[in-house]
Each structure stands twice: as C-alpha cells, then as structure tokens.
Amino acid sequence: MATTSIIDDSPLSRFHKKLLIQSSGGPFLDGWLLSIVGIALVGMQPDLGLSATELSLAGAAALIGIFMGGLVFGRVTDHIGRELMYTLDLLILVGASLLCAFVTDGWQIIALRFVVGLAIGADYPIATALLAEWLPAKKRGAMLGSLVVAWYIGATVATMLGFLLTEWLGHGAWRIMLASAIVPGIIILLLRVGTPESPRWLISKGRTDEARAVVRKVYGDDADFDSITSVEPQTTVQLGFRGLLRGEYLKRTFFCGMFYLCAVTPVFAMYTFGPTVLASFGLDGGNLENLGATLISVVFLIGCLPALRWCETTGRRPLLLWSFAIMLIPFTVLGLFPTGPAVLVIVCFCLYALASGGPNILEWSYPNEIFPTEIRATAMGVVTAISRIGAAIGTYLLPLSLNKYGNGPTMLMAAALTLAGLIVSLLLAPETKGKSLSEASSIGTATKDANGPVATEPTRTVV
Fold first, then answer.
1. Which domain holds residue 150?
2. Would you give the distance in Å from CA 312 to the centre of its chain?
3. Across-strand partners of 446?
4. How many domains does the chain have?
C-alpha cells in the first residue's frame, strides 16, 4: 500500500503559505493573551484588591481553561470537523478579552480568563490538526513548529506593548492591556473565513465526494485523489479517548503529554510572573523587571528560529534531547547561586529561553504527527490538557514558592522538572523526520536506529 499521497508529496504552494498565516493567527493571539497578563497583574492587584490567592488564580485561570478547552474541544473537532471550530473559538476569544476591560471584582477577571483559556485550548488542536493534514511531508515539522514562533511573536509584541503602556500610563493601564487582544483577534477572524475543510478528515468520515471537491479546488482537476484515499481509508471503528489509553498510543500519549508538561510549566510560570520572578532576584528598580521580562520574551522567540531548521535536518529526537540537556543548566545555576549578580540572572534566563526553542516547536509537531486522523485533534487536545495541569499548578505555586522557600529552592524545582522531561524524551521520543503523515502515525514493527525508536513497515490501524 502506498504510504504517501499528493498532499504529502506536493511542493509548497501559495495555498500552504496562506493556511500557515491563518493557522498562526490563533497561536499569535494565544501568546498575546497569556503573556500580557503578567504585566497587567501588577496594576490589577491594587486596583481590584486581589489577595495572594486571587492573584495566583488570576494568573492560572487561563491555563485551567486551556486544560478544559483542549480536553473537550479536541474531541469535538474530530467529530464535527476542523473548519467550523476554526472560527468559532476566535469569536469567544475576542468577546472574553473585551469584557476583561470592564471587570470590577477579582472573581470576574478569574472567570473571564478561564473563558479565554477555553478558547485557546480549543484552538491548539483545531489549528494544528488542520494545518498538519494539509502540509507536505518535507515541510511539515518546520511549518508546524512555526506556529509556536507565532505564539512567541504574539507574546513578544504583547510584553513590549505592556511595557510601553506602563511607561506612558502607569500600571493603571492594565484594562487596556487585557482588551488590546481584540484588534489582532478581529483581523485573524476575518482571515480565517473561507478556510477549506481537511480532506483527510472528510475521508475518515466517509464524505469522499466533498473531499474530492476540496482537493481539486486546491490542487486542480487532475489531482490524484486516489493517492489520498489509499492512505486515509474511511474508518469503521471509532477510537475516541479510549484509543489514546491503549497499547502503543498510550505510550505516545504519555510521551507527548509529559515532555510537553515539563517544557511549558516553567515557560508559562515565567511569562505569567516574569516581572515578579526578576524582581525577586533584585531586578525591581525603575520598571527594570518589566524590561527584563520583555528581553527574555524576545530571546524565547529567537530560540525557536534555528530549531525550525534543525528539526528537519538533524531530526526531532536529537533536537529534543539536546534542548532539554541545555535547559537544565541555567535552572541548576540559579538554584545553587540565588544571590548571584544581575548579569548572571539575565544570562541564565536567556540561555534557558534560547534552548527551549527545540521542545517549543516540537510540542505541536509530535502530537499531530504520531496519531492518526481519527484522533489527531483529540490527541492534541489531551496532550495540551496534560501539559496545562502542570502549567496551571506551576503558575499557581510559583509566587507562593518564592514567598515561602525563596529563589534557590524554586529554581531547583524547575531543574528537577526539566530533568524529568529529558529522561522521558530519552526513553520514548520517536523520530518522524521525512515520514509521511500516514507513516508517522501508523503502528508497525518498532525498531531503533541511532536516533531512537522508529516505526518500520507501518501498518494502517483500523479506526
């Protein structure tokens, strides 16, 4: 049976680039909303009279929402399709962001940030599954990874905006910061209107005529539609959530969820409470903590750029392992030397931000590559939910840990989590470089090469 199709083998076209821009809009907005809150919280706390518990919940609420959104709407997306959910979640995102400007009590901002998180959690599996199912094999890893670059661009722009608004208007500008997401949100929403449905998903649901029409619209009337149906047969048995908890797919779910959790928990904690963390190390004069957080945000973005190339040249597995190994160093140094000079603090956080580019771009590549169409969005949603359990707990506990234990022990906890990510990746990370989506997601006879586990002689799982 052929293991590639016209989608896997097609050259990169204007359609793919347009779809990438449309799909990147969601992560861009996600990065914006999840990062600007760190600066907004500084002014929000005295204005709303937030207690320490309410402050932690305001920071973690969106992450809890992402957990629920990914878990629920990933499965919904596999049921009703990618196209409808692609625009609906952005409508909710824009509406909740606007309402954040009018809150008058702590519970209101916590509730609205939870709704924002629901929409973000829905967008992760929707946008990544749709893009993965249209991309050619040779560009799939880098282009899926570029969605994370869009996340960091959004985060960087937002933190810069937050820094400037604080400089011009003071910390009282937090309402403007939280509502600012509606401008890019509306633009992204308009760009997504008219995006075609995934032919792989249509075929999996037996809607072959619709799939054929979509393929011909994109690739032309002479497109080899049969090459897609040969690797994406109509499914007869539904896998659903239970399919992720059995056999080989359970191992893949555990791997993706754990490496994702270990990678993003420190990242989200730093983005949410970046100024607070830097202030705890003594960088708290003249808005210096906000400037430092903005600098580190830029470095997070820069770290993703070479990783996009390396995931296609050196491979996914080596990139993941080396990244985790390097990320372990700065947390260990800060944990052992918590009273070091300011330059050491900045250098360590910047080194972590640079090295995190590898896991960051693979967080959305791996889950979409190693699960079949029937449960691709479900898997991405579940993996996102798993990662956000740790991210929400870490974000909630970070300010409490800084207050109770101090900088050193808190950084050593982050180092232990990073070490766990390295061990899980060493044991379970597969190599999917150069494989068609069908090959990468199939379960066959597993062997190992120098780069780790590789699936050979793939067989199509009946789902």
1. 6-459
2. 19
3. 455
4. 1
